[in-house]
Amino acid sequence: MSESSIGKGIAIAVLLTLVGAMAGWFLLASGGVLILVGFGLVQLLWLLPTITYHYARGEAETIKGLLIIGGLVFLLNASCWGLVLSGKWRIGG
Asked: Is 79 part of a structural domain of the chain?
């Protein structure tokens, strides 16, 4: 059984989220906007397999850390899109 901790899960999730954000900026710079619209859905592409992997290894505490960051990113994304859709903040100024 390997070492499991909430801190390990948080570190993994932050790293994967930053890599996903950098990939999103790269795609945006190359003309794509889908990554910005669907970032919450794209997040599932790395979150679910990572949770499954750590679940198979019996690392419950690591999964908690992954879910904490996954939830925070989801809430941040939802609140930003709430501002955009309410008209209180516009993309591009």
From this structure: yes
